Amino acid sequence: MDREKVEIKIDFLQCLETDMSLHIMSFLDDPVDIVRASATSHFWRHFVVTNGLAKKLCLKYFPQLANIVGVIKERGESIDSVEEEMNDAMAWKILLRDHQAYASLHQALTKSNVSPKDCISNAISASSTDNYPDESVVNTLNPRDRFIRRASYWSSKGQSNPAAPESLIYKLRDGIWVITEIDIQPFEAFFQAGKPIYSAQFVRFRIGYSKNPNEIERDASHKSADDKFLWSYTSPRFPMMQENSLQTFKLPEPVLCIGGYLQIELLGRVQTQEMDGLFYICICYVRVLGRPLFPAFDIELVEPDRKFLLKHYPENLSSVLQASPSDEIPNMRRFEEEMLWERIGLLENLLRGIQQGPNNPFLWEEDEDEDDINGLIL
Asked: Closest by alpha carbon to 296, among 176, 185, 124, 183?
């Protein structure tokens, strides 16, 4: 006679201590699994939400998010769980809102299909400049090596030591960005004999935040970059080629950036200038490619100490996860246009300071007059 088999089911979350249950659940590394776990039962939903497993998953892989102190789900909605006295229903509402926001945030950070965009806001400084402002670091925001009938590039001061490094610092755009690569084009001195290329031997990148934003804006201090900034990420060292081309440096893994600054370290010199025999580094163009989480997520700075409120717009999440045509997300189109005009404005302001006479119109010419080219110097 067949015996009736009795299947015994045990819910380990209800049997184990909370610490052990949290340790087991910490092995879930996909926000989809976190959401599925929360749908298993009322008890599991309560456990996942009250213990903030979605937020812990985000912080595990993106510790920069630790500066987020609150979540705003809709325009005008902000609930401070610390300052307000709340009943149980309100507390649960806040926990559930945070759970949904962080689960969506992790998904957007890891599965975004938005096309990468240049996330440089403006150029801040260079460790040295040979001929300021003609060869200012601001010129590296122009994708062409000529602008309004002038050579457009940044040049370091000459050094007799080929190992002398240089560095460039840029302000990155506000908002949440996932940076994937940085592109640099060395400058080819087309007006010098032999058209030498003033590249560096190696390049390295740092991403971080300013210790004193007011000091950076004034740019009046002569402190070193390490005294002004806290670097949260340092890349490996990449070799640069002696080629007149936009060289791509893909980061080993995507880097999360909430505003902040980028430092480009240019290590080693390979090209001397004929007239003085000194080593120079010259850069024509710099571009930082990242995927913005806007319009699904944005941030609001809460002073002091770089604390942020996370703005969550769940109705826009699909525009980040799917590669939608640009005409389906007009907010992003306006954002890209603002980036373009800001960049042109920076170059216009620089050129107004170095041109004589009335302002010149913006001319983009493929070929320069031979006499003008011969008159250019490094």
From this structure: 176
Residue 37: how many CB atoms within 10 A of its CB? 17
Q: Distance between CA 16 and CA 99 in Å, rounded?
A: 23
| C-beta atoms surrounding 20 within 10 Å | 12
The answer to whether residues 373 and 191 touch, using CB atoms and an 8 Å cutoff, is: yes
Torsion over CA: 348, 354, 355, 359 (sign): positive
**Which string of b and e fits 155-165 if b means at least 16 CB within 10 Å?**
bbbbbeeeebb
Q: Of 238, 227, 241, 291, which Cα lies nearest the Cα of 264?
A: 238
Q: Which of the pair, 351 or 329, is modelled with greater confidence?
A: 351
3-state secondary structure of 186: strand
> Would you state the structure tokens that stand for residue 225, as one six-digit string?
């970059």
Contacts of 31 (CB under 8 A, 6+ apart): 54, 57, 102, 103, 104, 106, 107
What whole-number distance in Å separates Cα of residue 68 and Cα of residue 147? 41
Give the distance, in angstroms, between the CA of residue 220 and the centroid of all CA atoms in the same chain.
Answer: 25
Residue type at position 138 = V
Q: How confident is the model at residue 1 (pLDDT cuts 50, 70, 90)?
A: very low
pLDDT of residue 43: 93
Question: Average pLDDT over the chain, rounded to whole?
Answer: 83
List, edge to edge, every strand of the sheet that includes 307-312: 68-72, 307-312, 297-302
CA proximity to 221, closest of 232, 237, 210, 234: 210
What gap in Å lies between CA 369 and CA 377, rounded to an integer? 15
pLDDT digits (tens, 9 = 90+) for 26-67: 999 888 899 899 999 999 999 999 999 999 999 999 998 999
Distance CA 182, CA 365 (A): 27
Identify the CA nearest to 127 among candidates 212, 234, 200. Answer: 200
In angstroms, the CA 117 to CA 291 distance is 6
- Give the C-alpha separation, 99 to 107, whole Å: 12
CA distances from 69 to 79, 93, 155, 306 (A): 11, 16, 42, 10
DSSP SS3 for 43: helix
* Averaged pLDDT, 106-130: 94
